[in-house]
Amino acid sequence: MHQFNIYGHLGTQLYPFNINTSSPIMNTKPSSESQIITIDVLKADDLLRNSKYRYLDVRTEEEFNKGHVDFGDVLNIPNMFNTPEGRVKNPNFMEQVQQVCTKDDHLIVGCQSGVRSVYATVDLLDAGFKHVYNMGGGFLAWVQNGLPVAVVTGDTKTEFPSPTSPLPANN
């Protein structure tokens, strides 16, 4: 059993909480040095819009295609796969990430609800990535907060703006 500290933002306050990695769905052994910073979806949205952060969606391709965070530079590299026996870790996750990212890239890691992204964030930090945030609440929280979503249908991406986005003017 491994435990490590995670730090999350709640408004402007940083708060600690612990994660127990003895979960049967993962055999991740994070180093005792792993310090994950979890940010909420509003902070993630701000960083994606106003800085050099990229979004790394670690859900399966099927989940991603049904709807994902809508930004131009979204990456989809599953950290786990669904099998008849349950979820198994993607053995090529780090290799696939390192093909498209450097250890100096700024990444926000998200999944469906914020659990798989914790494990992926640990893997990235343990591999030497320096600028990685976990997005708390995952895609579900993103949608609940009315943030922009894209859906892949065939070879096209359909964008759904947030309900708070201004509507285009009629000419």
Overview of the molecule:
There is one protein chain. Mean pLDDT is 79; it is low at 1-32 and 156-171. Helix content is 25%, strand content 34%. A seven-stranded mixed sheet has the order 2-1-3-10-9-4-6, with helices on both faces. A three-stranded antiparallel sheet has the order 5-11-12. It has a two-stranded antiparallel ribbon with strand order 7-8. The protein starts with a strand and ends in an 11-residue tail after the last strand. The chain contains five helices and twelve strands. A hairpin with a 2-residue loop joins strand 1 (3-10) and strand 2 (13-20). It has 171 residues and is an alpha/beta fold. It has helices at 41-50, 61-66, 93-100, 116-126, 138-144, and strands at residues 3-10, 13-20, 36-39, 53-57, 68-69, 74-76, 80-83, 86-89, 106-110, 131-135, 149-153, 156-160. It is globular.
How is this structure best summarized?
The chain is of the alpha/beta class.
Could you name the key traits of this structure?
alpha/beta; 7-stranded mixed beta sheet; 3-stranded antiparallel beta sheet; about 35% strand; about 170 residues; disordered N terminus
Helix content: 10-25%
By DSSP (H or I, 4+ residues per run), the number of helices equals 5
Distance between the termini: 62 Å
The main pleated sheet reads as: 7 strands, mixed
* Arithmetic mean of pLDDT: 79
Task: Summarize the helix and strand pattern as letters.
Answer: EEEHEHEEEEHEHEHEE
What structural category characterises the helix and strand content? alpha/beta
- Uncertain residue segments: 1-32, 156-171
Q: So what's the overall shape?
A: globular
Number of strands: 12
Strand content: 25-35%
Radius of gyration: 16 Å
Spatial strand order of the main sheet: 2-1-3-10-9-4-6
